[in-house]
Amino acid sequence: MKHMNRNLNENGNIIGRNPVIEALKSGKPLDTIYISGNGGSLGLIRRLAKEKGVVVKDVQDNKLTQLAEGGSHQGVVAVGSCAEYVTVEDILAVSQKKGTKPFIIICDEIEDPHNLGAIIRTAETAGVDGVIIPKRRSASLNATVAKTSAGAVSHVPVAKVSNLSACIDTLKDNGVWIYGTDATGNDCYSTDFTGSMALVIGSEGFGISRLIREKCDFMVKLPMYGKINSLNASVAGGIFMYEVVRQRYSG
Predict the structure, then answer these.
(1) 99 touches 90 (CB < 8 A)
(2) 68 by DSSP, 3-state: which?
(3) Edge to edge, what strands does the sheet with 130-134 contain?
C-alpha cells in the first residue's frame, strides 16, 4: 500500500493545526487557508496567514470535512499553491523582454477553477504575457486549476492582487488599454487589438463587476446568432484571445 502522510491528502491539502502552522512558518507556498473557529492555535494561524499574505476563508465544518477527505482537520485545512505568484510588474516585464506590446488577461471573479485553468491553458497557447486574478472571490492556483490547465500554470505568469481596480490603474500608467467583455460592447471583430492591451473576462454568472466595468477603456462582445445569448467564461475568453492573435500575427 502506498504510504501517505496523514496530514497531507491526495490533493496536497494540509490538514490540522500544527501542520498548517509549520507550513506557514516554513514559507511553503499556500494559496488559501480554510478555517472554522477562533482563539488558541487557530488565532495564531490567522495571524501568521496575515503576515504571509495568505487568504483565510471562514467556512463551516462540512466544508473542512470535504477538503480533508476523512482526515482529522481540527478546524483548519490549507490548500497549497501549484505555482508561485508573480507581481504585475513581472508581467509587464515579459513584453518588454520580448519587444512586443503587452497582452494581458484579467480574470474578474472567475470562481470556477476549471474555468480559470482553461483560461490559463488558452492564454499560454495564445502567447499571453500573464494572467491577473483578485485575492478575493476568485479561483486560485490549486490542484484543479493545475490539472485543467494541462501544465500551462508552469509557463504563464499569474499575479494575485488585493485590489483589482488599483492594478488596472497601474496597467494604464504603463500605457496598457483595458478591454472589458460584455454583450453591450462593440463587435470584437471590428475592434483594434493590435496595441498594448489587457482583456477583462468576467465571472460565470454576473460578468464584469460594476467597478471594473467603469475602469475599462472599451467594451467588446462576441456576435451571437442563436437563442442562447451567453458562453462559458473560458470559451468566450478563448475566442477573444484568438481574435487578438489573428490581428497581431495574421500577416
Answers:
(1) no
(2) helix
(3) 158-161, 130-134, 103-107, 197-201, 177-187, 218-221
Radius of gyration, alpha carbons of the chain? 20
Q: And the C-alpha cell for 139?
A: 479561483
Closest CA to 250 of 194, 198, 182, 199: 194
Cell of 48: 501568521
Tell me the torsion sign for CA atoms 125, 132, 143, 181.
negative
Q: Partners of 109 in the beta sheet?
A: none
Collapse the DSSP code of 69 into the 3-class scheme (helix H, G, I; strand E, B; otherwise coil) and give the result: coil
Report d(CA 241, CA 128) in Å as an integer.
8
Give the helix ranges, DSSP H, for the chain.
17-26, 40-52, 61-68, 88-98, 113-125, 143-148, 164-173, 210-215, 233-249
Q: Would you call 25 helix, strand, or coil by DSSP?
A: helix
Which pLDDT tens digit goes with each residue over 42-99?
999 999 998 888 888 898 888 888 888 877 888 999 887 777 889 999 999 999 999 9
For residue 190, the tally of other CB atoms under 10 A from its CB is: 8
What is the identity of the amino acid at 245? V
The three three-digit cell numbers of residue 223, written as one number: 456576435
